[in-house]
Amino acid sequence: MSIHGASIQNNRLKKRYGADRRFRIWCGLSVWVVVIFLAVLFFGIGREARFAFWKTEIALDIPQSFSGDLPSMMGAGLALDGRGISPNQGASDLLSPGSIKVFDAVPPVLPARVWVPAADDVNHFFSKKSNRHLVEADRRLTDGQVDYLDKLTQKGRVRQVFNYRFWTEGDARDPEFAGIHGAFWGSLYLLFVTFLIALPIGVGAAIYLEECAPSGFFFRLIDVSVSNLAAVPSIVFGLLGLAIFLNVAHLPRSSPLVGGMTLALMTLPTLIITARSALKSVPPSIRMAALALGASPIQMIFHHVLPMAFPGIVTGVLISIARAMGETAPLLMVGMMAYVPGGASGFLSPSSALPVQIFAWARNPEPGFMGHAAAGILVLLGLLIFFNSLALWVRRTFDHRV
Amino acid sequence: MARSLSRINAGGGGAVALWILKICAFLAIFVTFGIVFSLLLESVRFFSFISPVDFLFGVDWSPETLYHTPTNPRDWGGFGILPLLSGSFLITLIALIVAVPLGLMIAIYTREYASSTARSLIKPVVDILAGIPTIVYGFFALGAVTPFLQKMGAVFHVTISPQSALGVGIVMGLMILPFIASLSDEALGSVPRDLRDSSLALGATLSETICHIVVPAAFPGIMSAFLLAASRAVGETMLVVMASGLSAHLTLNPLDSATTVTVQIVSLLTGDGAFDSPKTLSAFALGLILFLITLSLNIVAHHLVRRHIKKRGV
Question: How far apart are CA B135 and CA B266, in angstroms?
Fold first, then answer.
């Protein structure tokens, strides 16, 4: 009887331990779900991005004696036999529609061989091996074009090159000529404005709240409004920027000035919160000591408290830079969605920004831009990693109290 | 300390500096009032075209309709917000269904089971997830998740929209997951040690202690994490703008496409249009609703935490 009871108890114990083990495994699995998701995300984006980093180029063999306009010269250069007989329309469609731009930069005496970017369809054709075996109707190149492309390849006139234009050009209609350069500078202009405004106001407000606010109604009002502002959706800040900067102040639409001011409104609450916690971490004994030695309160703040809180504030600023850099919705609201060929040229002229450029490319129907969006994301993530590791470095190096 | 400073007269330079600091703090409140006033003002102008009742309880959202038809005697289309709210609600719900169990289990794992090395590896992974801009999630949802779901649906002979709320919701769930994980981690950490120890001493297994003692004790904190994450999800813009649809219809079917309040704000304001038309003004009314929803979720969440702290007397 007693043995029987013990075995029941034993079974129950086994069951309970089994449940314990299973629970632990489930919890561990949920961590792996996140790891796998991240891996798939980065792998997917990286795989798509290589189409922006590598592009096909086709060589034009230009007859030296040729006279005529640029398009017909390019047609002659594309000919297979080198005698300057222009091939049919299908063959010249292998070149990027924007490839005529290449000749703007070439000196007046043309070299015999000029490499020009191939059309997006050609890049798409090379992106997958199986594209060759598709039926003509399912493919974006005709059989004649594929044939012509093969002949060019046999003569060594097709190559895959590193797409330097992605780094040096602004936005363009053709993916072969579009680059991140303009958006990158637009983002820099934007962040410059943002932090010129948000940094002094944010740190000033934090000092006031932490060091000299009488704890009355005014203090509570600011305290509550700052902590609630930090949770307001970013698009609402965009609406605010639209209402104030564009409709009331009539500042230029799509300019880095307006975009930067809107982002400044958005980063202000987070900046105040981080600066306050940095000030809070300065021990009160420092303040007492400074005051006891005869420093005025303002001297105490600016000579003793602020320098000690500095690493914490810089860390907070760098993290808000990273956040502001990836923010898109408020910029859409103030019209930074404009197509800006070339790139940003000043604080008042229309410009693009990295995340908005990614957005514009991702919804462009031309499939070549998908790779550009992915590559843009990699650039953006690279910058975010840079700012975050800088923040980590600042904290590790300068914060001796930790 | 703080009180003493304002009383001490710091002399000429000090007084100026104090005023500058005060103005900075004023500007911070100015942003709050700016938001409230600009949204209210434009919404009032909007409500002079459309009655608030039609706006709040209407089921037809078609702001693009600009002409008279026999069924539409007005000069503008429908401005009923309910289809948008249902879409926002649906996507937020899916996101929470994904994020809450996963986030909570990650918090439990890092706090209760993981070794210190494992913890120092898991924390950065969750931080990376939190640091990725929402546009990246949008790109991923648009390019990978929703097409994948559509293909899976075709295999099982289920029609899944290429902009399905399910796909958007899943990605959004992963986006708000770090939020839930870190907040519930804090909540679990605030549970007194002796509560856990007494349960273990009475012979409960660790999982029994967690499920029956620690999690219930941390429940208000977890609930507030849930509400804050919901407020995040409702206000999220780029992910839904990129991956979900524009057409508004009242549905709670996760396989169908759904549109949200934020998507409509973007689509209303990125097109051309006179600023005084009800179409553009309606974006501000939507913004006001969005602001009120997120604000009330935040207030309730903070209230929960504060009441909880007071009750425990920490």
Answer: 14
